[in-house]
Task: structure prediction
Amino acid sequence: MTFDDSDEKFAVMRRGVTAVLEDDNSGHDMGHIDRVIALAERFCDELDQDVDAEVVRYAALLHEVDDYKIVGKEKSGEYANMSKIMSDAGLNLEVQDRVREIVSTMGYSKSLRGIRPKSIEGWVVSDADMCEAIGASGTLRAFQYAISDKGSGVIFDKNIWPEVDISAETYNSSGTTHSTDSFVNHHFEKLLKLKGMMLTEPGKREAGRRHVTMREFLQAFFVEQNAPEWEKFLEIFEKERNSAT
Ligand code: ADP
Result:
């Protein structure tokens, strides 16, 4: 897949996105956006079916600007930032609708409510965004989030076990954190599940590689922390997930 690097609309929108995300310190920065775009481009290349590259690129660029962690729960569903950025760039209305449809159906908390993207373009962007949450960079982002003003501030507490089958209500219960929340527990409450939520073959392959990195990190961490009960917990968690998929 090739993109037109002189895409003026993309450049205008990227400036708009930068302005919205510039104060964020919880892992929603332009580095994240650019990596999601690059992964989504690669997935399009690896797919042997037609994908609208422009819609993929625009949705990847705009997927965070109305996130509830950025604008708050009340405003999140209005997609006001995204709509303004797209219309300032003069995007045609049909493309705007397709981008809005993708962004409004992706993300882990929406998936807990049974909402998933429906188009191939949406599958690609969703897989790229979820892959960005896992692997070595995913673990670093989770750490960054945990110590940010939105996170729990807890890295690991041997006595607080994760709520493995967490509901959407609990996940967002205190705005951006909840009672069992910690850097380590976030792996069990979200990150280790993402491999099984991929919607495209390239996404599944990439998520498989990143999953191994995370599991090895956690295994080593639990050994270093003298936490054999957590080593066992990880082993059982993985066994149950693998037999379910
Ligand atoms: P994404 O950008 O992947 O849709 P979010 O907006 O929910 O994810 O969060 C941004 C990043 O912070 C992600 O990598 C995510 O896994 C991580 N994160 C979200 N919630 C927590 C949490 N409670 N503890 C640790 N990391 C978190």
Q: What stands out?
A: The chain has 14 helices and no strands.
